[in-house]
Write a structure and sequence with these properties.
- The protein is globular, with a radius of gyration of 18 Å.
- Strands 1-2-3-5-4-6-7-8-9 form a nine-stranded mixed β-sheet, with helices on both faces.
- 29% of the residues lie in helices and 20% in strands.
- The chain is α/β, with parallel strands linked by helices.
- The chain is built from nine helices and nine strands.
- It has a single domain, classed as Alpha/Beta hydrolase fold, catalytic domain (Rossmann fold), CATH 3.40.50.
Amino acid sequence: MAWLGRAPVWVAVLGAALALLLNGCAGPAYPHGSPAQVESWALARGWTPVWLRAEPFNLLGLLRQSQASPGLRVYIEGDGAAWPNGYRPPADPTPQQPLVLELAERDPAVAVAYLGRPCQYLAPAALATCSSAYWSERRYAPEVVAAMDQALSQLKQAAGAEHLSLVGYSGGGVLATLLAQRRGDVEALVTLAAPLALAEWVRLKALSPLRGSLDPLEGDGPLPYAVHMVGSRDRVVPAALGARFVARHGGRLQLLPGFGHSCCWVQHWPALLPDEEGEP
């Protein structure tokens, strides 16, 4: 695995992952959350795993690039492992079924990246030093956005890209929007099932308050061309929240009949991706 950022760049492929590659094994069809599984899954499919030092976090990134490209499409992971209930976060935020990674894998673009969230994909010792606030009330805090911003710049540099497009699912869509509001190199934004009116979402779902988190609805930075996709059957993030955001900040709301919060994004990706003119 390579490190980018303040740490020197180095490569250390796990023995198990290397053995899988040498034996011609493609690894699991779906990575189930552990760093070793995700790395081996990625390596077997042409992705380069990198650790991005983005103070105060180490973030997992994956980069797949078949040729030089001025643009890099970055997929931002959701909030991760499900909460046992509305008030108690999981012990480890690493996604057990990384839907966003599946979306990125199906993307035919020549330069694609995946970006994990703070405290995800960490070994137990490292996870123990990462505050659970960063996958609960402070999951969209200013320091989280700043770290993700650093990570995007590192991925962009590694790919030799000039501009970015961002795709974010659920809470990853919140962060993608917050990042697009602060960066000048994001040319397109796509969110899927994202609670873009954050305070209203918390009230509507009677969730624990997200103290210290930024609400994209209240942001005032300019946004690039944006498509906000919502499912008609989403009971986690109702479509009305996306409509509220679009009414204030513009962009296009795309209502997908029959889609829920997790169904059926992977099955219909990448046909849902807008083309260069913004048409689905």
